[in-house]
Automatic annotation (TrEMBL):
Residues 659-738 form the Molybdopterin dinucleotide-binding domain. This is FdhF/YdeP family oxidoreductase. It comes from Metabacillus rhizolycopersici. InterPro entries: Asp_de-COase-like_dom_sf, MoPterin_dinucl-bd_dom, Mopterin_OxRdtase, Mopterin_OxRdtse_a_bac, Prok_molybdopt-oxidoreductase. Residues 124-579 form the Molybdopterin oxidoreductase domain. It holds the Pfam family Molydop_binding.
Length: 786
């Protein structure tokens, strides 16, 4: 693979371009829009007790919010400072004082009255805590006692009976790596991480299509590409700084197209606070929206390809890049045959988009020399997600949008360093530098100096289900070690999740704050360990951005609200190893973060360079500016593979809807505002098409019930510009509608989309005792507090 190096940050276009303005009236007065400057003032006040430290985090640390990779106030894409409200919202987790003792040791039922949002605001975990079976409150415990309870339990269990999980709250590559190494050292292959429920299908699909599971392009490739397409992504909401890149792209002539069931206002009009022109006049982001049905993307892309092949019949080379395909791609004839067999009727019915509109987009792409395809959870959170993404790769391979400037495939990641979690091996199917296959196993065993168990570990969803297996089952999970995370608010079927968590013998929560899942009972004990943040980690730490930039974030001194007993996460894992297997624990011993980075560079050869990151601002990009440079893929024959995929059947019956979940003003499951600043939706609003509502005689704001055989969701109708037959509810509030045990067939992500029926609340409630055979679920009040 050739390696062109990234050129570093470039200057933004200064000239004003009024054609992209939302309105000449300054600050979008009179419009529904975020109040960025007001929010920023409020956040400054929230941090006033630790203002100096907060400022140092923002000016010296690598953002622990989204995965764009802003280091201090700067990044590798555009010159000039960047800051966004997502980062500011997360800031308080790093600066706040400890929880007050009267709260820490309050009666458990008093604590359970708090929502996760309220618990988060109360402060950090001050010292190790334990709550044994039958106890009403947490008691303080020493680190030694806490670690001994965990280690003694592990010694009694078969390693198939305990599991590790790491979330995405600013955990560093060093912590992911040590956790992955320690888990395997202890004999446990049940280790998983938060990217499982976001982007694991992206990795799986890209691996089979082009041989590499990461973004092949950079954000700079957006600037001046002919087309930038977002599939199922609200990039402006998850990663607000990306809007600055979108504005720069538009100024350089890029067309931005969004494919999403709901015409998301944040992808339509945005006021970018760190750009004066946009802060005043707003930016019209999307040039066009294609409102596909939920789950209709594969058919939609089949339609694009069908038209391309029709164009080819008339004139060879008018749509397909034959030179690229012949030299760099396998499977052309098979794909062509399968696409041509499909009728337009099938394509239109599944996609929900007219033939004329699909042809319009197909012809635009056929004329476009370059394109960058970016996608997020709208493509990944399906039972057929790997096929969704291989289909995007099919489009790119047919046009040769790969391995060069202004072109590529970009899984748009939401959280800082989730890209690193799998690359460090914190995943049941992965070891550092490769898969869980015989060749890589042998290689990693030689580096680590111990045998890795050969049985296949389970993904997080299956691990949760395995907690309720019969007592004598060899895979019954009895101890779960969680580094952050709240399964009650991220996984489908929260009622089951709560039951499962309470049936564990021991549950360990290594975290910064308490959340609702911390308060669930356990059969023997719940242990809570106070973790340091990434900014407190001794010797600093690294994180990997969406575009494969590995950034160094230094240890930041001077936290006035320091939690004296908190420990760096990687150090806690090493302590655990020493207690469970003292005689061989020297094999997983690290004294410093530098020692960990030195070993990462050997264990994952892509990361050769991480060992040189030592100071604030140090960064390197693994793989160079473009993966698959010049079209050469890291596959056995160096070629990309076109994959034939089928149009999925969602099993939707006459009169039913398909529902998916969306985020409002939140970071993962952490909610920061009850009302979405872009569309005014509350957390219990059901976003629906006005025409669909009229057919059901539903008025806007009316109480409605969304239900299926798995659960019931009571909310209010809110009319938005969404494709007919589709609904959106907020995540995690809507998770009660989702069944457990439905996983993506290749990557094991839970399915977050389901068919439902909608009724007026009064009609549903009047009839449910008589006619409904659904399992009974206690009604949620429409105005239930979160």
């Amino acid at each position: 693979m050739g390696e062109t190096k990234h050129q570093g940050p470039i200057k933004a276009t200064k000239a004003l371009q009024p054609k992209h303005w939302v309105s000449p009236i300054p600050f979008g007065l009179g419009k529904v829009k975020p109040q960025h400057f007001r929010d920023t003032m409020k956040i400054a006040l929230d941090n006033k007790d630790n203002f100096g430290y907060a400022t140092r985090i923002l000016t010296q640390g690598v953002c622990d919010g989204c995965a764009l990779g802003v280091s201090g106030l700067f990044d590798q894409t555009l010159k000039g400072p960047h800051i966004c409200t997502t980062r500011l919202n997360v800031l308080r987790l790093n600066t706040m004082p400890a929880l007050k003792e009267e709260i820490v040791h309050a009666d458990i039922d008093e604590l359970r009255k708090y929502s996760s949002t309220e618990l988060r605001k109360l402060g950090r975990i001050p010292y190790p805590l334990i709550r044994r079976k039958g106890e009403r409150k947490f008691s303080r415990i020493s680190w030694d006692e806490a670690m001994d309870v965990i280690a003694n339990k592990m010694k009694k269990l078969d390693p198939k009976q305990y599991a590790f999980y790491l979330t995405s709250r600013g955990i560093t590559n060093e912590s992911y790596y040590v956790a992955a190494k320690v888990a395997r050292f202890l004999g446990a292959n049940h280790i998983d991480n938060a990217s499982r429920i976001c982007h694991s299908p992206s990795k799986t699909a890209l691996k089979r299509s082009i041989g590499v599971g990461a973004s092949t392009a950079n954000y700079q490739d957006w600037f001046g590409t002919d087309v930038l397409m977002f599939w199922g992504s609200v990039a402006s909401n998850s990663s607000p700084v990306s809007t600055k890149y979108m504005l720069e792209a538009k100024k350089r002539g890029t067309k931005i197209i969004v494919v999403n069931p709901y015409s998301e206002p944040a992808m339509d009009k945005y006021w970018i606070p760190s750009n004066m022109e946009s802060a005043l006049f707003g930016t019209k982001i999307a040039d066009d929206f294609y409102q596909v049905n939920i789950g209709g993307d594969i058919a939609f892309m089949h339609g694009i390809m069908k038209h391309w092949f029709d164009m080819e019949e008339k004139q060879r080379g008018s749509a397909i890049n034959h030179e690229f395909v012949e030299e760099h791609v396998n499977g052309y004839e098979e794909l062509k045959a399968s696409v041509q067999e499909l009728s337009w009727d099938e394509i239109i019915e599944s996609s929900g988009v007219t033939k004329e509109r699909i042809i319009e987009l197909a012809e635009l792409l056929a004329r476009s020399k370059n394109a960058v395809f970016a996608w997020a959870l709208g493509l990944t959170m399906h039972s057929f997600a790997t096929d969704n993404i291989s289909q995007v790769a099919n489009l790119a391979l047919l046009r040769g949008y790969l391995g060069r400037k202004n072109s590529g495939l970009m899984p748009f990641r939401g959280h800082s360093s989730v890209q690193g979690s799998g690359e460090m091996g914190a995943d049941p199917f992965v070891l550092p530098g490769g898969g869980f296959d015989a060749e890589n196993l042998k290689r990693v065993e030689e580096i680590w100096g111990f045998d890795i168990p050969k049985w296949q570990g389970d993904i997080v969803g299956v691990t949760l289900e395995n907690i309720v297996l019969p007592e004598d089952h060899e895979r019954k999970i009895k101890l779960y070690y969680l580094s952050g995370g709240n399964f009650l608010e991220t996984m489908p079927d929260p009622d089951f999740v709560e039951k499962a968590l309470s049936e564990l013998d021991i549950r360990v929560h290594q975290d910064i704050i308490l959340n609702t899942s911390t308060l669930v009972d356990a059969k023997e004990a719940v242990i809570v360990l106070p973790a340091k943040t990434r900014y407190e980690q001794e010797g600093g730490g690294t994180s990997t951005s969406t575009e494969r930039m590995v950034y160094f974030s230094p240890e930041i001194m001077g936290n006035k609200n320091e939690i004296k007993e908190a420990r760096s996460e990687w150090k806690i894992y090493i302590d655990l190893a020493k207690r469970v297997k003292p005689e061989t624990a020297h094999l997983v011993e690290f004294k410093t973060g530098q020692e960990i980075r030195d070993e990462i560079a050997i264990a994952n050869r892509d990361y050769d360079g991480i060992q040189h990151l030592k100071n604030q601002g140090d960064v390197f990009q693994w793989g160079g500016a473009w993966l698959c440079e010049d079209g050469i893929c890291p596959t056995p024959d160096g070629k990309g593979q076109l994959i034939v995929v089928d149009i999925p059947d969602l099993g939707k019956k006459e009169g039913q809807f398909v529902v998916t979940s969306r985020r409002g003003k939140q970071f993962n499951s952490m909610v920061y505002k009850e009302t979405d600043p872009f569309n005014g939706a509350g957390r219990y609003d059901v976003l629906m098409n006005a025409e669909d509502a009229r057919r059901l005689s539903i008025a806007e704001g009316e109480g409605i019930v969304v239900y299926n055989g798995f659960g019931v969701f009571q909310g209010r109708a809110k009319f938005v510009n969404i494709a007919s037959g589709n609904l959106e509810v907020h995540f995690p509030e809507g998770n009660f509608l989702l069944p457990r045990g439905r996983y993506e067939k290749f990557a094991g992500i839970p399915d977050y989309n389901i068919t439902v029926t909608v009724e007026k609340a009064d009609r549903f409630n009047a009839r449910k005792d008589v006619q409904y055979l659904e399992k009974q679920i206690e009604d949620l009040e429409v105005n239930a507090p979160i």
